[in-house]
From TrEMBL:
Coiled-coil segments on the chain, per record: none
Enzyme class: transferase
Amino-acid biosynthesis recorded as keyword: no
Keyword tags: ATP-binding, Kinase, Nucleotide-binding, Transferase
PANTHER family (alphabetical): SERINE/THREONINE-PROTEIN KINASE NEK, SERINE_THREONINE-PROTEIN KINASE NEK2
Name the UniProt record assigns to this protein: non-specific serine/threonine protein kinase
Enzyme Commission identifier(s): 2.7.11.1
Organism: Hyalangium rubrum
C-alpha cells in the first residue's frame, strides 16, 4: 500500500503563485488546504486564493477542478467571481476568486435572526443566483449559512460560495463514482440524506429553505446530537412550525418556507427560477397559495391529530464511515448488502425502516394493537439480532412519543437515540458491543431480558430471557380495597377517638402517585357510612390546574355541602349559601359567617351591607382573619350537631392559605369532634413545611403486600388463574396499586406485562389501543385538566362530534374505567367528569402534539371563561399555555390580587412573577407593578417598595384605591429606608389630591402614615398640616368607617405623644383606635396603636398595664402573620420591658431586640429602636461601655427621625455620665436639646432630655446652666401633668416615672423643700 506524502506547509507572505499571485496573508485553513489573501499582478486587484494540499490527480484535486470549472462558467453578482485556476510549480491546484469583505451568514445569525424583510432580501438574491446555476444544469448541493457571504455585511448583497460539491448533470456519473460526500447533514435534502442517485435542483431549494427557516426562527429546522439522528429527522420529521416561534410572520411567508421544505422533491419548488417567481409574488402581494395537501404530512386539527408511543432503533457502523466521514461507494454497497436482510426482517415484524446516507439503519416500531411492553420487546429482539450478526455495529433503542401521520415516525425520541449513539461512539469497547436502552424501554422490558443499569441512568441490553405466559382475558370486575386493613384500622380508631373524646384530630395519608390513596379514602368513607356513628363529610380535591389557588379545596367542600354550583347566577349561589348558613348557625353569626364564607367559596357578597367586609377588602390580613373566623364558626356549629370529617384529597395541589386555615381550625376547635383526613404525595411535607405539626398523625401507604396483591389479582381475574401468572403480575406491580390494576387489564387483554416505573408508557399504550373517537375525546378532555366537562370537550373538538356521539363516547370511557362522572358539577347544565387517575390524564395529555396544545388551551380558557370559571388562576394558566400573553397576564394579576387580599404573599408573588413573564403592556403592566410594590412593602422590602412605587405612581389615576395603596407604601417605606428627603414631594401630591369615593379609607390610611412620618422626623408644622387634612378627609366617614376611624385616631396619638406630650389625650386616642380596629377584626392594624399605647402607659407610670398591652399587641401580630407588625410589636414590647425593675423583663427585652437585629436589614426605625433597647438593658445591668456603644449606633441610625433620636441620646448621655465622661455627656445633651427645640420644645422626651443636660452640667460643676436646664425640665413636667385630669393618675405620673421623680428630687436638692414657690 502506498503512503500519502505529508501535506505541504503554509506559504509565507511574498510567495508568488503561477507567476501572477503574490500571497499577502493566510486567512484560513482546513483539512483540504489553505486560503490566502493575495494580489493579482495582472489586474492589481486583491483576490482570495485557495491552495489545495493534495497533488493533482487525487480525488480532492478532481473535486477542486470541478469547482473551478463550474465557477468559470458562472457570472452573477450573487455568485463569487472566478479569476483563474491552475497548478503551482509543485503541482498543487489553486483557485483564485474575488476578495470579499464582510462576514458569512452563519456569523451574522449567531447574533440574532433576520427580520422578515431582511430574510426576503437575502432570499431574492440567492434565488436569482440559483436560477442561473440551475439553468446551466448545475446543482450546488451544499447550501448552508457558512456558504452565503454578506458582502459589506449587507444581506441584500449576499454572495454564494463553495461549489466544491456542485454536480453538473451531464457528467454526474464521472464525478461521483467513487466519492459520496453529498453535503452538510442539517441542510441537505431528503433525497441526499437517503442517497438517491438523481439529485435535482430542487435539492438546493430544500437546503435554502433550511437556511431561510434558520434566518427567521433563530434555530435550524433539524437538530440532533448525532449524524444518523440528524439524517433521520431530515428524512422523516417535520420541523417545529414557524408560527410557534415567530407568530408575527405573515402566513404567506410561512407558506413559502413550508413549500421549500417539502420532503418529496416532486412536490417542492423545482428550481431557482420558480423560487424567484414565488419571492416576487410574495413581495408584490404578500400572498401565496396555501401549501398543497401533499405538503402537509401532519394533521393540523385537535380532532384528528395526536402523538403515539413509538420505539426507535438506530444502528450504525463503528468505523471510518461513522460520524459523517466521506464514504466510498464500495463501503456503501457493502453496508447496504449487510443491512438489506435486516430491513426485510424488520418490515416483516411491522417495523418501518430506512437506510440513511451514512449507512445507518433506522427502524421504528408502532404496534397499534399491541401493548407498550410488546412493542419494546419486539424492538429489543430486533436490536439483539442486529448486534449479534453485525458485532461491530453500534445499536441504540429508545421509546417515546411521535406525531401520527409522519411517514416514518421519529419525533423527540430520535434525539435521545442520537444522544445514546454519540455516547456509544465515545465509550469503551465493552459498551460499544452492546445495545443501549433508555429507561422507559428498559422498564417496559422488565424481566424478559437481561439488563445492566449504568450510572448515567441508561441500560445495556445483554440477552433475552424467554418466558412462556398463558393468559385469561377477564376484565370489568369491581376492584376491591385489599391489603389496607392496618391503615383503615388506624383511620377508624382515630375517628372513634375523635368522637368519644371530643378532640380534633388530623391524619395525613401519604404515598406516591398510583399507590391507592383514593381507594383507601373511598373504603374508609364506605365503612363510616355503614357504621353506627354518622358523620358530616366535607370533601375537597386538589387539581394541578388549580394548584396555588387560594382556599380551593375548602371552597369546593363548602360549595358541595351548600349545593352551590359553579356557573349558576351569582345571586342563586348566594341564596344557597345564605340559606344553608342560616339553617345551621346561630342568628347572631349568620351575617358575618355567610359573607366571609362567600369569600372563601368564590361567592362574593356586596360590601355595602357589611362594614366588616368592606374593611376586609381594604386589608388582606383582615380578610384572612375574617375568613378564618367564618370557617371556625361554620365547623363549630356542625360539630355541635354531629362529628365532622373534612377530607382533603391530593393536598399536594393545595395552597398555603388552605393549609394555614386548617391549622387555625384545628387549634380553635381542639375540643370538638372534628377529624381532618388529608391524602397527598410524600412531597407535600416539602411543599408545606411543618404541616399541622401539633395535631398531625401521618399514615404512610406502603406497597401492597404480596398477599394483598395476590388477592386482588384473583378477585378480578378469577381464582383459576395459574399461580405462575399471578406471581408474575404481583412481582411486576411491586406493590403499586395503579400498576397492578393496569397489569390486570393488560393480562385480561393478553398483553399485560410491564414493570414499575413505566406506568405512563403503559397508559399511553392503552389509550393508543382505543378506538380513535374515544382517544380524541380523552385527548381533548386532558387539556382541560384532570376534571373536565362534556361541553368543554365539545368546544375543543370544534364540532367534530355530535352531542349524541360525544355522550356515547363518554359513556364508553366510563365503562372502560378511564374516567368517572361526578354527581355534582361546578357548572350548571354541564356534566362533570374526572380522570380516574392523574397519570391517566397525564398520559392522554402527552399524546396531544405540542404544536396543537396552544390552540387547545386557548379554546379551553375561552370556554371556561364563558361558563363562569371563578378562579382567575385557572384561566391564566390556560391562556399562558395558549400563548395568549395579554389574557394570561390579566388573569394572573387578578389571581395575585385575590391571594394578596387573603394575605398569601408568596402565592401572590408567584402569580405576579408569572404575569410579568407574559410581558404585559399598558394598564395590566401598571397594575402588576403596583401590586408588586404592595407585596414588597408587606414583605418589608422597603427599598423595592419605594423604587417600584416611584416607577408606577405617575401612571396610576390619582385618588384611586390603587394609587392610594402605592402612596401608603411609599410614605411609610421611604423614611424608614433613607428616603426622607423625598417626603415633602409625596406630601404635596397626597394632600392636594381628593380621593375617589371608593378610596377614602385607603386615602385616610395614607395620610395617617404621612402624619406619622412627619412626626417621626420632628416636623411639627408639616405634621399639623397633614393632621388637618386627615381630619377633613375622614370627617364624613369616621363615624361609620371603623378603619378610617382607627387610622385617624392613631395619627392624632402620634402627634400628641411625640410632639405635644399630651399623654392623657394620647392614651384616649390610642384606646379608641384599638377599639376601632377590633370592630373589623384587624389584628395587624391593632399593632400600631397598641405598640404606642404601651410606651404611653410607661410615660404615665403604669408599667404593668403597659407590659400587658404590649404582649397583646405581639400576640395579635403573630396571629396576623405579618412580619412588619410582628417586628414593630416586638420592639415596642422590648422598650416597655426595659422600664421594668425586674431582671427577667430586662433579659426578655434583650432577647427580643437581638432577634430583630438578626432578621431586620433595612428598616432604620426598627434597627434604631432595637439598639435603644439594648442600650437600656446594658445600663440596667451595669455595663456602661456596652450601653454607650448601643446608644451611639441608635443615634447614627435615627439621625433623621428626631423624636426617636432623642430617646437614643438620653441613653447615650446616661452611659457617658456613668463612665465619668460628663463633658461628652453635656455636649450630647446640648445637641439633644437643640433637636427638641427644633421640634417645638415639647414631646414625651422633653423632660428626660432637659434632665440629661442638667445632670451633665452639675457633674461639670456648672451650676447656672445646670439649674436653667432643670427649670426647663420642671416646666415641661408641669405642662404634661396639667393634661392629666385624674389626681391619682397625675400623682403616679409625677412619682413613678423615673425621669419625672428624678427631676423633682433634683429640684428639692438644689432649691430646698419650697422650691416650687421659688420657681414661681
Amino acid at each position: 500500500m502506498s503512503h500519502a506524502s505529508p501535506p505541504p506547509a503554509a506559504l509565507g507572505p511574498g510567495t508568488v503563485i503561477a507567476g501572477r499571485f503574490v500571497l499577502q496573508a493566510q486567512t484560513g485553513r482546513g483539512g483540504m488546504g489553505f486560503v490566502y489573501q493575495a494580489r493579482d499582478l495582472l489586474t492589481e486587484r486583491t483576490v482570495a486564493l485557495k491552495l489545495l494540499n493534495s497533488r493533482s490527480g487525487s480525488e480532492a484535486a478532481r473535486r477542486f477542478e470541478r469547482e473551478a470549472r463550474v465557477l468559470s462558467e458562472l457570472r452573477h453578482p450573487g455568485i463569487v467571481s472566478y479569476v483563474a485556476h491552475g497548478l503551482t510549480n509543485e503541482s498543487q491546484p489553486y483557485l483564485a476568486m474575488d476578495w470579499l469583505e464582510g462576514e458569512d451568514l452563519a456569523r451574522r445569525l449567531t447574533r440574532q435572526p433576520l427580520s422578515p424583510a431582511e430574510a426576503l432580501q437575502m432570499l431574492r438574491r440567492v434565488a436569482q443566483a440559483l436560477a442561473q446555476t440551475h439553468a446551466r444544469g448545475i446543482v450546488h448541493r451544499d447550501l448552508k449559512p457558512s456558504n452565503l457571504f454578506l458582502r459589506g455585511g449587507k444581506v441584500e448583497d449576499v454572495v454564494l460560495l463553495d461549489f466544491g460539491l456542485a454536480r453538473v448533470n451531464a457528467t454526474s456519473q464521472a464525478l461521483t463514482a467513487s466519492v459520496m460526500v453529498l453535503g452538510t447533514p442539517g441542510y441537505m435534502a431528503p433525497e441526499q440524506a437517503s442517497n438517491k442517485p438523481d439529485i435535482t435542483p430542487s435539492a438546493d431549494i430544500f437546503s435554502l429553505g433550511c437556511v431561510l427557516y434558520e434566518c427567521l426562527a433563530g434555530q435550524p429546522p433539524f437538530r440532533a446530537p448525532h449524524l444518523a439522528a440528524m439524517l433521520a429527522k431530515v428524512l422523516f420529521s417535520e420541523p417545529l412550525e414557524l408560527r410557534s416561534l415567530r407568530p408575527e410572520l405573515s402566513p404567506a411567508l410561512q407558506s413559502l418556507v413550508e413549500q421549500m421544505l417539502v420532503k418529496d422533491p416532486r412536490q417542492r419548488l423545482a428550481d431557482g427560477q420558480q423560487l424567484s417567481r414565488a419571492v416576487e409574488s410574495l413581495e408584490v402581494s404578500q400572498e401565496l397559495l396555501p401549501p398543497s395537501p401533499s405538503t402537509a404530512s401532519v394533521p393540523t386539527g385537535l380532532s384528528n391529530a395526536e402523538q403515539h408511543l413509538v420505539s426507535v432503533l438506530l444502528a450504525t457502523s463503528e468505523g471510518p464511515c461513522s460520524g459523517g466521514a466521506p464514504m466510498k461507494a464500495e463501503d456503501a454497497a457493502r453496508i447496504r448488502g449487510m443491512i438489506a436482510p435486516f430491513q426485510r426482517e424488520l418490515q416483516a415484524h411491522g417495523g418501518q425502516t430506512a437506510l440513511l446516507w451514512d449507512g445507518s439503519l433506522l427502524a421504528t416500531f408502532l404496534l397499534e394493537r399491541g401493548t407498550a411492553t410488546d412493542q419494546a420487546a419486539l424492538a429489543a429482539h430486533c436490536a439483539l439480532s442486529i448486534q449479534e450478526r453485525l458485532p461491530d455495529s453500534l445499536v441504540v433503542l429508545a421509546t417515546g412519543l411521535s406525531l401520527r401521520g409522519e411517514r416514518l415516525p421519529v419525533g423527540e425520541v430520535m434525539d435521545r437515540a442520537g444522544e445514546f449513539l454519540r455516547r456509544l461512539e465515545g465509550s469503551a469497547a465493552t459498551l460499544a458491543s452492546r445495545v443501549m436502552l433508555d429507561e422507559t424501554t428498559a422498564g417496559l422490558l422488565g424481566s424478559r431480558f437481561e439488563l445492566d443499569k449504568l450510572v448515567s441512568g441508561t441500560f445495556l441490553l445483554r440477552s433475552r430471557q424467554l418466558r412462556v405466559d398463558e393468559t385469561r382475558p377477564l376484565l370489568g370486575r369491581p376492584t376491591p380495597c385489599v391489603g389496607r386493613e392496618q391503615e383503615l384500622a388506624i383511620l377508624e380508631l382515630a375517628f372513634q377517638s375523635c368522637v368519644e373524646d371530643s378532640a380534633a384530630r388530623a391524619l395525613l395519608v401519604t404515598a406516591p402517585a398510583g399507590m391507592g390513596k383514593s381507594r383507601v379514602r373511598h373504603e374508609f368513607l364506605r365503612r363510616l357510612e355503614q357504621g353506627e356513628q354518622s358523620a358530616l363529610v366535607l370533601l375537597g380535591r386538589g387539581d394541578p390546574m388549580n394548584a396555588g389557588s387560594a382556599y380551593d379545596l375548602l371552597g369546593q367542600a363548602v360549595r358541595r355541602l351548600c349545593g352551590a354550583v359553579d356557573g349558576e347566577p351569582l345571586e342563586a349561589r348566594r341564596e344557597r349559601l345564605s340559606r344553608y348558613v342560616s339553617e345551621h348557625l346561630p342568628p347572631e353569626q349568620v351575617k358575618d359567617t355567610g359573607v366571609f364564607l362567600g369569600e372563601l367559596c368564590g361567592i362574593p357578597f356586596p360590601v355595602d351591607n357589611s362594614p366588616k367586609l368592606r374593611a376586609a377588602h381594604e386589608d388582606p390580613r383582615l380578610m384572612s382573619a375574617q375568613v378564618t373566623r367564618a370557617m371556625v364558626a361554620f365547623l363549630r356549629a356542625h360539630c355541635a350537631q354531629r362529628p365532622v370529617l373534612l377530607v382533603l384529597e391530593d393536598l399536594h395541589w393545595s395552597d398555603a392559605p388552605t393549609v394555614r386555615l386548617v391549622e387555625e381550625v384545628l387549634r380553635e376547635l381542639a375540643e370538638c369532634p372534628l377529624m381532618v383526613l388529608a391524602l397527598a404525595r410524600p412531597d407535600v411535607k416539602e411543599l408545606f413545611p411543618g404541616l399541622w405539626s401539633r395535631f398531625l398523625q401521618e399514615v404512610p401507604l406502603r406497597g401492597l403486600s404480596q398477599k394483598a396483591s395476590t388477592r386482588l389479582v384473583q378477585e378480578v381475574l378469577g381464582t383459576k388463574l395459574p399461580e405462575a401468572v399471578v406471581a408474575r403480575l404481583v412481582e411486576q406491580a411491586a406493590g403499586n396499586a395503579l400498576f397492578l390494576e393496569e397489569l390486570i387489564r393488560g393480562e385480561a387483554e393478553g398483553r399485560g406485562e410491564a414493570p414499575p416505573g413505566t406506568v405512563l408508557a403503559m397508559l399511553q399504550s392503552r389509550l393508543q389501543r382505543m378506538e380513535p373517537t374515544l382517544r380524541r375525546v380523552l385527548l381533548a378532555a386532558s387539556i382541560l385538566g384532570r376534571t373536565f366537562w362534556a361541553g368543554g370537550v365539545r368546544a375543543l373538538l370544534e364540532g367534530d362530534l355530535s352531542t349524541e356521539e360525544l355522550e356515547q363516547s363518554l359513556r364508553q370511557v366510563v365503562e372502560l374505567e378511564v374516567v368517572q362522572p361526578h354527581p355534582r358539577s361546578r357548572f350548571p347544565d354541564e356534566t362533570e367528569y374526572r380522570f380516574r387517575h392523574a397519570l391517566v390524564r397525564d398520559a392522554a395529555y402527552s399524546l396531544v402534539p405540542d404544536s396543537l396544545k396552544p390552540d387547545g388551551h386557548r379554546l379551553a380558557g375561552a370556554w371556561l371563561e364563558q361558563v363562569g370559571e371563578a378562579d382567575p388562576r385557572v384561566l391564566a394558566e390556560h391562556y399562558q399555555l395558549g400563548q395568549q400573553k395579554e389574557r394570561a397576564a390579566y388573569f394572573f394579576t387578578r389571581a395575585g390580587e385575590r391571594l394578596f387580599e387573603r394575605q398569601d404573599l408568596m402565592g401572590a408573588q408567584k402569580c405576579l412573577d408569572a404575569a410579568l413573564a407574559c410581558e404585559p403592556t399598558g394598564a395590566t403592566f401598571i397594575e402588576l407593578r403596583a401590586l408588586e410594590a404592595a407585596i414588597a412593602f408587606w414583605m418589608e422590602d422597603f427599598s423595592r417598595t419605594y423604587r417600584l412605587g416611584s416607577e408606577v405612581r405617575p401612571h396610576l389615576v390619582a385618588g384611586s384605591a390603587q394609587w392610594g395603596r402605592v402612596m401608603c407604601g411609599m410614605i411609610l417605606a421611604g423614611p424608614q429606608s433613607g428616603h426622607m428627603a423625598e417626603l415633602p414631594e409625596l406630601s404635596q401630591v397626597l394632600l392636594s389630591t381628593p380621593p375617589d369615593a371608593e378610596a377614602v379609607t385607603i386615602y385616610v390610611e395614607a395620610v395617617s402614615y404621612l402624619v406619622a412620618m412627619y412626626t417621626w422626623s420632628g416636623q411639627r408644622q408639616e405634621a399639623l398640616s397633614a393632621l388637618e387634612r386627615l381630619n377633613a378627609a375622614s370627617a364624613e366617614t369616621v363615624a361609620r368607617d371603623a378603619m378610617a376611624r382607627g387610622w385617624t385616631y392613631n395619627a392624632r396619638s402620634y402627634f400628641d405623644y411625640f410632639l405635644d406630650a399630651r399623654l392623657w389625650q394620647c392614651q384616649s386616642w390610642l384606646e379608641q383606635a384599638v377599639q376601632a380596629f377590633q370592630e373589623v377584626g384587624s389584628d395587624r392594624n391593632q399593632a400600631a396603636p397598641r405598640g404606642l399605647l404601651g410606651l404611653t402607659l410607661v410615660a404615665l407610670g403604669d408599667v404593668p398595664r403597659a407590659i400587658d398591652i404590649s404582649r397583646e399587641s405581639l400576640a395579635g401580630a403573630l396571629r396576623a402573620r405579618q412580619m412588619y407588625a410582628i417586628t414593630y410589636s416586638q420592639l415596642h414590647l422590648a422598650l416597655v420591658l426595659t422600664s421594668s425593675p425586674e431582671a427577667g423583663h430586662q433579659e426578655e427585652a434583650r432577647h427580643l431586640a437581638l432577634q430583630v437585629l438578626r432578621t431586620e436589614k433595612v428598616n432604620l426605625v426598627h434597627l434604631g429602636m432595637a439598639h435603644i433597647a439594648l442600650a437600656r438593658v446594658a445600663a440596667f445591668q451595669g455595663l456602661p461601655s456596652e450601653a454607650e456603644a448601643q446608644a451611639r449606633k441608635a443615634c447614627e441610625l435615627l439621625g433623621m427621625l428626631k423624636p426617636l433620636q432623642l430617646m437614643a441620646r438620653m441613653s447615650l448621655c446616661a452611659a457617658l455620665l456613668a463612665r465619668g465622661r460628663s463633658s461628652e455627656a453635656q455636649a450630647q445633651a446640648e445637641q439633644g436639646v437643640q433637636v427638641l427645640e427644633q421640634m417645638g420644645g415639647r414631646g414625651a422626651a422633653a423632660v428626660g432630655m432637659w434632665l440629661a443636660l442638667a445632670e451633665a452640667c452639675f457633674a461639670q460643676e456648672e451650676a447656672a446652666p445646670g439649674e436653667n436646664a432643670l427649670r426647663q425640665a420642671v416646666r415641661c413636667l408641669r405642662q404634661q401633668a396639667e393634661d392629666i385630669p385624674e389626681p391619682d393618675a397625675r400623682e403616679r405620673f409625677m412619682r413613678q416615672v423615673p425621669e419625672n421623680a428624678r427631676t423633682l428630687q433634683l429640684a428639692r436638692h438644689r432649691w430646698g423643700e419650697h422650691w416650687e414657690g421659688i420657681l414661681r
